């Protein structure tokens, strides 16, 4: 099932809305963003942290959105550790 989420870079406050499959691994999303939209990943340093704004938890990048209970309309925040 497709879900629409917002990716927010908390370092420079950039946001983008994207649609992903809920069975897709979270790490795959960030790899695609780095390749196709490097400006959204600008100012982030490896390793960066990924957190759900709704649940206030850090996300495991190797799980998919369904396993991490990320739903339509969620905001995923990226920030430097």
Structural write-up:
- The protein is of the alpha+beta class and 81 residues long.
- The chain has a single domain, classed as Roll (Ubiquitin-like (UB roll)), CATH 3.10.20.
- 14% of the residues lie in helices and 33% in strands.
- The protein has one helix at 26-36, and strands at residues 2-9, 14-21, 48-52, 75-80.
- The chain has a four-stranded mixed β-sheet with strand order 2-1-4-3, with no helix packed on it.
- Strand 1 and strand 2 (14-21) form a beta hairpin.
- The longest helix is centred in the middle third of the chain and has 11 residues, at 26-36.
- It is globular, with a radius of gyration of 11 Å.
- The model has no long low-confidence stretch (mean pLDDT 90).
Strand order across the largest sheet: 2-1-4-3
Helix content: 10-25%
Would you report the number of β strands?
Answer: 4
Global geometry: globular
How many helices? The count is 1
Largest sheet: 4 strands, mixed
CATH architecture: Roll
> What is the succession of H and E elements?
EEHEE
Task: Give the DSSP E fraction (strand runs of 2 or more residues).
Answer: 25-35%
Give a topology summary.
Blueprint (H helix, E strand, L loop, with lengths): L1 E8 L4 E8 L4 H11 L11 E5 L22 E6 L1
Parallel strand pairs: 1-4
Antiparallel strand pairs: 1-2, 3-4
């Amino acid at each position: 099932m497709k879900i629409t989420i917002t990716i927010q870079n908390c370092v420079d406050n950039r946001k983008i809305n994207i649609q992903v499959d809920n069975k897709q691994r979270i790490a795959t999303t960030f790899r695609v963003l780095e390749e196709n939209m490097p400006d959204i990943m600008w100012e982030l340093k490896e390793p960066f942290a990924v957190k759900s704004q709704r649940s206030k938890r850090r996300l495991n990048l190797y799980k998919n959105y369904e396993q991490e209970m990320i739903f339509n309309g969620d905001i995923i925040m990226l920030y430097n550790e």
